[in-house]
Structure to design on (316 residues):
């Protein structure tokens, strides 16, 4: 079948490790269901896989991708939840494309309980944005960050998938939202989404109850200084560097909570879909490519010049 997959690892030039072409279809585990993929989206997880992070040579070639919408054997349009049970992983679970083939292919197989009915009012391209970045942002805001108790939220590094999703979701929840970006054009996009855009490190008009942190070392001190007593700083990544310096005096004096987050549960995925459907909110799509243009889509993601999600239309 046609697929976009990693053939090797290259930390310096991840795009050179990408192949788009025919690949033998793996036999799925017993009880798994195969879905015909209609749309998928890219994540920085895919670029890290091409660099060899979490994807050793003995698992190559590996179909990339965590996000997809497809048609199940009954003919229903479904969103694919990308977290699967995995006894070979110390976490007890893994994401599609880590141990099991991912979604950037004509077909993908998952446990039957990982298929969630797509809302009728949401397009396949829109829903394909949700299973990784948007689910992670939802988990960070609701479950880990307890946004129901928050009035003001800071999102670091708006432009990427998780951060942009967090801005849109927090605004839809009625929060006062501040979001940082180094680039003026991204700050303009943030403003258009209903948030207050600020430069990295800038003093905020107020301290916040909740920080969504995916940048890491360059922004973490600002995240702590921008937090009011008892605030939650929820971390899902470290795209700017993983060795952050933390002033522990501020942690205990301000009673800060520093929490980790990765993805979310299938029930949270259903809650996210219901929230978006009820609110009429849709994911921010930066660019759409045909599946035949997958290599160009990866180049665009790798450039960093994006705001929102990069989506693949598998009908093209």
């Amino acid at each position: 079948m046609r697929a976009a997959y990693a053939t090797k690892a290259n930390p310096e030039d991840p795009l050179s490790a990408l192949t788009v072409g025919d690949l033998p279809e793996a036999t799925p585990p017993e009880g798994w269901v195969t879905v015909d993929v209609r749309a998928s989206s890219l994540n920085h997880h895919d670029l890290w896989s091409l660099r060899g992070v979490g994807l050793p040579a003995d698992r190559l070639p590996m179909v990339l991708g965590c996000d997809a919408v497809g048609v199940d054997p009954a003919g229903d349009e479904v969103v694919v939840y990308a977290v699967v049970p995995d006894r070979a992983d110390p976490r007890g679970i893994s994401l599609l494309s880590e141990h099991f083939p991912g979604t950037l292919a004509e077909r993908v197989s998952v446990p039957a309980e990982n298929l969630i009915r797509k809302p009728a009012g949401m397009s396949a391209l829109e829903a394909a944005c949700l299973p990784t970045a948007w689910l992670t942002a939802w988990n960070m805001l609701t479950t880990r960050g307890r946004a129901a108790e928050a009035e003001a939220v800071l999102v670091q590094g708006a432009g990427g998938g998780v951060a942009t999703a967090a801005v849109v979701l927090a605004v839809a929840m009625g929060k006062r939202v501040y979001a940082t970006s180094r680039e003026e054009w991204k700050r303009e996009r943030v403003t258009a989404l209903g948030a207050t855009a600020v430069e990295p490190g800038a003093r905020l008009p107020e301290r916040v109850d909740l920080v969504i942190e995916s940048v890491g070392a360059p922004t973490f001190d600002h995240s702590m200084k921008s937090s009011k007593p008892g605030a939650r700083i929820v971390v899902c990544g470290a795209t700017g560097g993983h060795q952050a310096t933390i002033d522990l005096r501020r942690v205990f004096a301000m009673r800060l909570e520093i929490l980790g987050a990765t993805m979310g549960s299938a029930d949270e995925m259903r809650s996210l879909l219901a929230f978006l459907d009820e609110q009429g909110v849709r994911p921010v799509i930066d660019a759409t490519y045909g599946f035949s243009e997958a290599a160009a889509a990866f180049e665009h993601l790798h450039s960093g010049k994006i705001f929102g999600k990069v989506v693949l239309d598998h009908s093209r």
